[in-house]
Amino acid sequence: MRIGVLGAGQLGRMLALAGYPLAKTFVFYDMSGSPSAGLGEVIIDREGEYLDDFLSRVDRVTYEFEHLPVSVAEAIARVKPVYPSPRSLQVCQNRESEKTLFGQLGIPTPEWRIADSAESLQQAARELGCPVVAKSNTEGYDGKGQAVLRAPEEATAAWESIGHQRLIVEKFVNFSREVSIIAVRSIDGDVAFYPITENTHHEGILRYSVAPAPKLSAATTADAERYIRALLNELDYVGVLTLELFETPDGLVANEMAPRVHNSGHWTIEGAGTSQFENHIRAVSGHALGNVSPRGVSCMINIIGEHGDIERILELPYAHVHLYNKGERPGRKLGHVTILADSYEELVWRVRNCASFLPGAPEFSCSLTRG
Amino acid sequence: MRIGVLGAGQLGRMLALAGYPLAKTFVFYDMSGSPSAGLGEVIIDREGEYLDDFLSRVDRVTYEFEHLPVSVAEAIARVKPVYPSPRSLQVCQNRESEKTLFGQLGIPTPEWRIADSAESLQQAARELGCPVVAKSNTEGYDGKGQAVLRAPEEATAAWESIGHQRLIVEKFVNFSREVSIIAVRSIDGDVAFYPITENTHHEGILRYSVAPAPKLSAATTADAERYIRALLNELDYVGVLTLELFETPDGLVANEMAPRVHNSGHWTIEGAGTSQFENHIRAVSGHALGNVSPRGVSCMINIIGEHGDIERILELPYAHVHLYNKGERPGRKLGHVTILADSYEELVWRVRNCASFLPGAPEFSCSLTRG
């Protein structure tokens, strides 16, 4: 089976590495002009001229990147099976649609308003009560296209700095930590949930993911699974879906979802029975889902901006190095390291030791280190 | 770093899958005309015309297949670093050189003679005492080019059936089981040993490998490690080396070695901290060696000749499927499944269940099932 992947970055690379052992081959369709998958066949098509050629070479299509025009995904779906469906893409690209769907399915979100001018942004900030977070309604990821308003009077400056015509304005959530749940749904409708992951961001970029998230109540896990199951079923979703959540004293609050494998699931390559990448390939190919149970405890550390002392990290017996073969650039995801351990105590020590060889890494901080 | 691989079969495929995450790229040099690696760049060169082209595209060279002319390896070594060295290849291609080296290093072997005619074969059989095993001195693997003589009078028929000009004749070893040890040596001379594996063959082809080999004494393990360390150091070896051994009431007896990753080490992909493939890439690239400790107990089942019911195997939560994307043909290695468990009891049950979906698989038999 030949799988077409829309996008050609490191997520596509890891999908292919997981898919070859299942006898899949890969063709990537890159619209950025700078593919980095580094294996499989890559079609670079900045002008959209070679889509037919791409489609003639594949049996079904998936994506590793959700910021492509829904019209393109819909055109593809008329020719070849596309998993997950273009509707999933459409919902995830539009924060208003996403939040509306969350509300319909009973998934708690921060209180929110739409703003289409500096004036309405100020009005929204006043109604919600500051601080609020304003985000472009479409596009934007890794913290881009966002601003925090500490007072309604900051609306004009925020409106100008974001530079979009339609914003979603959210009441600030006083969360204790950020977590994510990754689930996978098969063509037959089977669903499997990975353990919830605790995520630490720095400068808007994910830095550390600890899995299974420590100190998580069974009730909270059940909530997260119920929420993502509702989304999977509502969207008749096939493949891996990620839901980012805030943990608050009043329970979980949904932040956003991603219709794909996710950075907070990279630990599954060594830390789970079946990786998120293999499970996505299994799902879109029509196979049974693989085992999502954890193997010990894991922490993924992103390598951001510069590689650091990889040779020293390769000497650590508990570290698994994944490089994306990309050039160094501030803020760029260059790779990740997964640290495995048998206990959280051991994990903290090992993560700190590994991070000491990554000059760009912020100090390891999560619920484990806060005592 | 661009790694050139001589040969382009499933071993090369798995080397590449392990090497991409370390930011290596791969160019395969195929002399068979039927490469199956399925990823990386493949240069097919049945006439030996494109070797210079291949060498211009790579930084260093290794192999996944040892049956290529030593003269080719030597020519390559004059242009680019080759690991392991051509001498390792030369020794492994010639059973007489191999057995002589074993003897020099104090590694026990079956008693052996050289035969260069039907008459000398008969004489050797008489001297050693039947049964004896006659093997072509060069070439031959997976049980090809071999014959068992139950009486010296069978020499003429055996000589003709093998059809080689120089044979090695070995006294039959009364072994309790076959095991192998896989070790890796870095450019700096560091050595790491994987746990010894117990191997079961059927019709001359490896079918099952259980690791760590059950019921193995510490003294036997120490012997195997001493033997392979002596080989690694003598050959100034860089990369993964495999030594196949017979376990007998009088201790271990060496059968043969392979200067490469080995089918009996495929379990390391999920069953060890670092796979044999990653460790080979680490070694030939000049990195530190990875952790060779086992993760639970494992059994690798080869998929031979026909694929069987892969969909059912994908449903087993403890099975890891690796397909080589090759067409079915009797006796052909099409893939393997690694079964993981926390105990040998559980392992046996799981292996039997998995094997029931592989019509070509012989009944699971090893020291665990013999009680």
Structural features:
homodimer; 371 residues; alpha+beta; Rossmann fold; Dna Ligase, domain 1; D-amino Acid Aminotransferase, Chain A, domain 1; nine-stranded antiparallel beta sheet; four-stranded parallel beta sheet; 12 helices; 17 strands; 27% strand; globular; ligase (chains A, B); phosphoribosylaminoimidazole carboxylase activity (chains A, B); Rudment_hybrid_motif (chains A, B); EC 6.3.4.18 (chains A, B)
The termini of chain A sit apart by 49 Å
Number of domains of chain A: 3
* Greatest chain-chain contact: A-B, 30 and 30 residues
Q: Describe the global form of chain A.
A: globular
CATH topology of the largest domain in chain A: D-amino Acid Aminotransferase, Chain A, domain 1
Number of helices of chain A: 12
Number of strands of chain A: 17
What class, by secondary structure content of chain A? alpha+beta
Beta fraction of chain A: 25-35%
Q: Averaged pLDDT of chain A, please?
A: 95
Main sheet: strands, sense, barrel of chain A? 9 strands, antiparallel
The gyration radius over C-alpha positions of chain A equals 20 Å
CATH superfamily of the largest domain in chain A: ATP-grasp fold, B domain
Assign the CATH architecture of the largest domain in chain A.
Answer: 2-Layer Sandwich
Low-confidence stretches of chain A: none
Highest-level CATH class of the largest domain in chain A: Alpha Beta
Order of helices and strands of chain A: EHEEHEHHHEHEEHEEEEEHEEHHEHEEH
Function (chains A, B): Catalyzes the ATP-dependent conversion of 5-aminoimidazole ribonucleotide (AIR) and HCO(3)- to N5-carboxyaminoimidazole ribonucleotide (N5-CAIR).
Pathway (chains A, B): Purine metabolism; IMP biosynthesis via de novo pathway; 5-amino-1-(5-phospho-D-ribosyl)imidazole-4-carboxylate from 5-amino-1-(5-phospho-D-ribosyl)imidazole (N5-CAIR route): step 1/2
Domain ATP-grasp (chains A, B): 99-285
Family (chains A, B): Belongs to the PurK/PurT family.
